[in-house]
Specification:
The protein is mainly β and about 200 residues long. It is about 10% helix and about 50% strand.
């Protein structure tokens, strides 16, 4: 039994140590236009446990660089053959939530990454027909209550995703709901007026 435990411990220690010097390179592209993205921050991530391709499942950043004017990047790193590696690109104007990353294993070159661009929706909200101080507008999980509501909300979404937003208005204890749907162009700002 002691020999078995010793062999198990040694095999586990070797698993953690099996690394090779490696290089990963590739291009960062705009996911809608399919054009190179210059100046994107490119991160090389490692995952100890396995799991999904989502950023939230990865444990640490091993290396960082930036894409050049052609969208090209290159990084040297020590690759552990028993752990999962992934590339993540980040740039202002592009989606930076819990995204899927480009997964790769040791000795693999040309790992490209598609950055989904953002569009901005600008909601101009104004109570133009006030009834009383209990007038209420509910939009994007926020409530605006009162007679003198005049505000602007900015909301960003992936350009490729159409939006479907339901908002509701309460005036004189009568509730009305409306649906806004549509899409906004590549990195555009689309204005939506909600006057109630």
């Amino acid at each position: 039994l002691l020999v078995f435990i010793f062999l198990l411990q040694v095999s586990c220690e070797k698993k953690e140590e099996e690394t090779i010097k490696d290089v990963v390179d590739g291009y960062i592209y705009d996911a809608v236009l399919n054009t190179p993205v210059a100046g994107a921050k490119v991160e090389l991530w490692q995952d100890d446990r396995g799991g999904t391709t989502r950023r939230s499942d990865f444990d640490r950043v091993l290396n960082t660089t930036f894409s050049d004017s052609n969208g090209y990047y290159r990084m040297e790193f020590t690759c552990n053959v028993y752990k999962q590696n992934a590339i993540l690109a980040i740039k202002e104007g592009y989606f930076d939530g819990d995204v899927d990353m480009s997964i790769f294993s040791c000795n693999r070159r040309n790992v490209n990454y598609n950055l989904p661009p953002l569009s901005t929706y600008k909601f101009n909200i104004k109570n133009v027909n006030p009834y009383n101080e209990f007038d209420t507008l509910s939009l994007l999980n926020k409530k605006y209550v009162g007679e003198h509501i005049d505000t602007v909300i900015y909301w960003q979404q992936k350009t490729s995703n159409p939006i479907y937003v339901v908002y509701s208005i309460i005036k004189n204890n009568v509730k009305k709901s409306q649906l806004i749907s549509g899409s906004c162009g590549h990195m555009d700002t689309c204005v939506i007026n909600i006057h109630y």
